[in-house]
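Troubleshooting: if your tokenizer reports a length mismatch, compare your output against this known-good record of 125 residues.
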Amino acid sequence: MSATFELSIETHFSAAHSLRDYPGDCARLHGHNWHVKLYVVCEELDKLGLGIDYKIMKTELKAALEPWDHYNLNDVAPFDAINPSSENVARELYHTMSSKLDNDRIHVSRIDISETCTAKVTYRP
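Known-good structure output:
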């Protein structure tokens, strides 16, 4: 049985959203300081003994979040067509990060998104 390494980084972004057709307060525009945790797994290390350089993970995650940071998510694709729920944000970010980081040695395993310190969703395929 081979070992698996799971690497993670954390960051945050600030954005507003409202949940269309939600029967409560979240239907109104409100904001969050969204906390994001990105996980990458690998079984083999590179010649330097790294799974992936954290700098690469940080750079790619920052670039992926830039179109959302300090915006109303309802105005930004794909959330102009689907509700910007934590679940949908996590799924969209997972697919974006997978397209940037996955290769024959490593792949994104999951994304955690927290709207608050007590509410978190994890997306994994």
